[in-house]
Amino acid sequence: MRRFARVALLCLGCGLCSLLYGFSQLALSLEQQPGGGRERQAPDPGARQQAGGGRAGAGSAGRGEAGAGRCKNLSLSFWNSYWMLPSDVCGMNCFWEAAFRYDHMKTRPSEKMHLAVVACGERLEETVTMLRSAVIFSIKPLQFHIFAEDQLHEGFKDILDDLPYEGKVNYTLYPITFPTESAAEWKKLFKPCASQRLFLPLILKDVDSLLYVDTDILFLRPVDDIWSFLGKFNSTQIAAMAPEHEEPRIGWYNRFARHPYYGVTGINSGVMLMNMTRIRRKYFKNDMTPVRLQWGEILMPLLKKYKLNITWGDQDLLNIMFFHNPESLYVFPCQWNYRPDHCIYGSNCKEAEEEGIFILHGNRGVYHDDKQPTFRAVYEAMKNYSFGDDLVHSLLQPLELELQKTMHTYCGKVYKVFIKQLTKSIRDLYARRSKGR
Length: 437
Description:
The protein is of the alpha/beta class. Among the domains are: 220 residues, Spore Coat Polysaccharide Biosynthesis Protein SpsA, Chain A, CATH 3.90.550.10; 73 residues. It contains 18 helices and nine strands.
């Protein structure tokens, strides 16, 4: 009996060794293939070092013998996924452990959703209205990251501290900050403070994923639903945005842009979902140097090269970056970033016609003037809603009556798309409450 047990144990050990050997060969084959399942890095280690591209604990060794030495001596699997490692790091552990981490990321997302906004000037009320719309329907806890001018901080504290959702919402206030040596240039780029969003991956270093939105955003369904797109990213995608236009005949980028832009009509950065861990690790292709640059290295050179050719500031810089790195962008439909351009020239967001608007984006100040009364009606209804009131009688029904008054406008003719998803969100919210969720 003892002999049988020893033989069985020996067979089991041999099988385990064979399995580990198979994985090591698979990892080696991936490393030898072009791209190796991840982006290929700059071949010139000296150039990368000059560009400041080394990572913590990674140094600046290149391919060949130096890389082979690192493969034998180091496993960096604890801080980086296999397909995103520098080209000179490989090994069975990198492949094996990263596989488990990636599966964990897809199946067990963070319980807290992080939402960031940048507010300057007269944007306090508009920003608070946006935050309130996020709170109303969302299911998982929210962490707000609010970047604001110093004089706005007390106003945010007074309002947000009174939110009746203790435990569901937390917030942190930050000052507006730019790199010291170039702060003046970034501040005057497009609107005041707008380019702050470009530096979020570098400021919020402990945040893995983040949803950035402009102040003029209104959520008409749970933030959880757009947050779920993170689980749909493939191994190369680092961010998600919606197209700037659906109809090229009225597109701005394809008709007027003097710089590269993503896709057919460009992308709009008013709603931007980011895997910031991947953004911080990625080396970006660009048209300034053959060396790929990291996020913090590429921003200022891009601004210097294109500052005389860009109209929409930081959004144009993002378009340039994703033009050169299209594999890094996940594009979601227009109903997740519905703007006046989707209806003022006739309805051109088919997804919204079918399912309604999920996120309303009142850019160009349409919440505060009479140019687009349909957008203003939704904003006023959300702003005036009091937490705890019945959503049907205090929000939905009064809003529909106001929207019917706008039917003389192009957007008013399709006013039902403005309340279609809102109606469903309210129904779903009450259903969750009845189940005690």
